[in-house]
Design goal:
homodimer; mainly alpha; Arc Repressor Mutant, subunit A; 2 domains; three-stranded antiparallel beta sheet; 6 helices; 59% helix; DNA-binding
DNA sequence: CGGGATCCTACCGGATACTG
DNA sequence: CAGTATCCGGTAGGATCCCG
């Protein structure tokens, strides 16, 4: 991961490279295949959710990918993980305030995109005409 | 590309699957390695920029990746491409209103992330302590 | 100059099998 | 149940060469 956006975000020009990389990592992770879906499932629930319940709601995800996704979310403080030493084991995930804040700040971008869908569709049609 | 976020964006529940996929594609592309940097370079300039000028400013990008990035941007109407049949050839790229709008709507997310960097750093430190 | 074509590598994510 | 370990195909992206 390198030093993107450098000149763009003048506000953050003073940001140390290392921290800029972190910020970049956080934001780009949001585009990971299952991340936002997983996060939004937890947000919807509001209360703790077991691994298997999450997996049911995030349709199509593999355990491997869900585990990886939840690890990332936990690592960045967007989700908390609590393990109960029972048999069979129980693990519960809960979205944090930070996680809710993230969703809150992603949504406007998503809504704007949806509102401009016709622009995007038109652009793609024109492009396909030009190129074939 | 599948049917993510399904339940999350209640506002868009009525969205046809195909259009949801498009919206998802548009937004997740923003995390592509060179896309936002390229777009921001064009936004900064404001006026048309030649391929090689862009490549200078987006430090580290290969021609292949820059070409691919610009094609995507052009395809989605975020950038226009004008070719001049000269020798040697000249190609100019210009950001569109749609492109500027996109940047405008990505920036709040970026700023929020930067403002919460210490939260993320703290979360990662704690995580590393727990896990090692 | 602005790419296209090709080769190569790293990594992502799915499928499957195994385990505390 | 909630993972970990392993294999594997597809793809993103860098490097290089070539062409109008």
């Amino acid at each position: 991961m390198e030093n993107h956006w450098k000149m763009w975000n003048a506000e953050c020009a003073a940001l140390e490279p290392e921290r800029e990389i972190l910020a970049l990592e956080i934001t780009t992770q949001m585009a990971d295949k299952w991340l936002l879906w997983t996060l939004s499932v937890l947000a919807e629930e509001g209360s703790p959710l077991r691994f298997s319940r999450i997996m049911e709601r995030v349709e199509g995800v593999s355990q491997k990918s869900l585990t990886k996704t939840l690890r990332q979310l936990e690592r960045d403080g967007l989700v908390t993980r609590e393990m109960f030493p029972e048999v069979p084991p129980r693990v519960e995930y809960t979205i944090t305030e930070l996680g809710l804040g993230m969703l809150e700040h992603v949504r406007p971008l998503w809504l704007w995109t949806v509102q401009n869908l016709e622009n995007f569709e038109r652009a793609r049609r024109k492009y396909d005409e030009r190129r074939g």
